[in-house]
């Protein structure tokens, strides 16, 4: 494997000679390696997951467009373009990826030295830093007009999810529907509310911008002082509403329990984590967010959590085809835990909304 890795890595325009290639982290999606060289530059080398990303060439074009836009901004601000933005490394032929003989796609970028990343944001300080990271990223891209290719059609689009939901419920392929009237009602009772929100995105009341779509804190690199360097892992950049990024971050950051917690008492939305993220996020984004985006910011946490309830339940009814499961009830357990989180958000919604209102007013003064 090492020889094969070296041979593939050698297809890219690397500075210096390869000294070592080592696996990095344990990503769920891609296989990641660090390529160490005898020059000043090391590289991050990845085999992209082609089951999830069915159009890697378009994905890489999207990433390049986003990186270039950010680099221009960093440059204009007198920043360090090699540390405050991702730098893609192309092949000797000038391509952004290499396709090997097994049909696997490989890509490379500059490894950002002396950077720090965190695995989870379980303190208000880290949550604040995460909000700043994604906020800064979105802010630099707020004026990007060049469209991105929609490599994940239907992503966070509840109308699309309902079309899948209606079809799967009609077919009820493994006969699970009969025992799920309570859970199905959780979804149906909120259908109109969620569609009303999505209509505002469809009719442009809520603008479409550039979104990251994987806002975990380990996708943000910080410098040793703790300041944001840049956002990485740009495989999922899309044109959508920035509210989806905010909502998804809040769904994962604020959960005091696990996504598949069997003890529902563990699962709640942590208001301090919500406030800290919101504060960091708004500090970076208040200059460009529209009134409609601010108005629906808190709502987006419910929207994304609701979507996840629907998706877990839908996969359970469909016979566990999409998510990997550890037991036959795993998707139902996930549904119940996400629903608990959703109701916790609903219970605290007034306070969430008030915080966004007050804090954005304060920042606009
Ligand atoms: N350009 C980079 N410079 C330094 N470290 C990086 C860089 N890109 C990724 N990393 C580190 O490698 C980890 C995994 O990379 P990532 O692109 O997020 O892969 P995955 O898709 O598997 O999540 C990141 O969380 C980060 O710690
Ligand atoms: Mg990642």
TrEMBL record:
Domain Aminoglycoside phosphotransferase: from-to ranges: 20-255
MF terms in GO: transferase activity
Gene3D superfamilies: 3.90.1200.10
Record's keyword annotation contains Transferase: yes
Keywords: Transferase
InterPro entries to which the protein is assigned, alphabetical: Aminoglycoside_PTrfase, Kinase-like_dom_sf, Pseudomonas-type_ThrB
UniProt keyword Transferase present: yes
Protein name according to UniProt: Aminoglycoside phosphotransferase family protein
Organism expressing this protein natively: Ancylomarina euxinus
